[in-house]
Amino acid sequence: MDVDKVDFLHEPFDCAVLLSQGDFPEEWESTELFAEWLIPVCAPEALSEQPWDLPRLQAAELLHPTPDRRDWRQWLQAMGLAEQVPLKGGQVFDTLELGMVAAARGYGVSMGDLVMVAEDVAQGRLGLPWRSAVTSGCSYYLVWPKARRGQERFQRLRDYLLADLAAMQLPDVERVVDSLR
């Protein structure tokens, strides 16, 4: 699993939000913000056409938010579709966010994160062609060095983010845990 990294000694960051399984150095504070749930996303207009079924997914332009296509691979595997939907072709991006933006603009179907897409789905900027989210086994964490000055600022940021996330209305979807993880 490729996870995010930060080097607080050599990079100009006071804190960071990282995708990880939670294994951080002892000298860091860390708080889990939310678990990653992968879900396909598309332009809202793509929902008004024919229904999304296996043949339509097979014919869709898949957008890959990771160069190794792991997000799609993991979702398809958990849904029992890994052998039926080809992962070749399609645009490749560096981040989930870029894939979601391309999907919203109608370039194809990308993988997104349930929390990250919640507001865009609610506002009609993104659609959910397949209403099943799959856990990736990772979470997003707020991290910062324990020795960094201004600890109370980081704690206020943490409290704000946790309160904001707790108040968030997530789309109503089926949550699938990949039994092979």
Task: Provide a quick synopsis of the model.
The protein has five helices and six strands; from the N terminus they run E-E-H-E-H-H-E-H-E-H-E. The chain has helices spanning 54-59, 70-78, 96-104, 114-122, 151-167; strands at 16-20, 28-41, 62-63, 109-113, 132-145, 174-176.
Identify the notable features of this structure and list them briefly:
D-Maltodextrin-Binding Protein, domain 2, alpha/beta, 28% helix, six-stranded mixed beta sheet, 5 helices, 2 domains, 181 residues
Count of distinct structural domains: 2
Distance between the termini: 11 Å
Could you give the order of the helices and strands? EEHEHHEHEHE
* CATH architecture label name of the largest domain: 3-Layer(aba) Sandwich
- How many β strands by DSSP? 6
Helix content class: 25-40%
Instruction: Describe the largest sheet.
Output: 6 strands, mixed
Structural class of the helices, strands and pairings? alpha/beta
Fraction in beta strands: 15-25%
Oligomer: single chain
CATH topology call of the largest domain: D-Maltodextrin-Binding Protein, domain 2
Structure annotation, total helices: 5
The CATH class assignment of the largest domain is Alpha Beta
CATH superfamily of the largest domain: Periplasmic binding protein-like II
Gyration radius over CA:
18 Å
**Average predicted local confidence, pLDDT:** 93
What characteristic shape results from the CA principal axes?
Answer: elongated
Poorly predicted runs: none
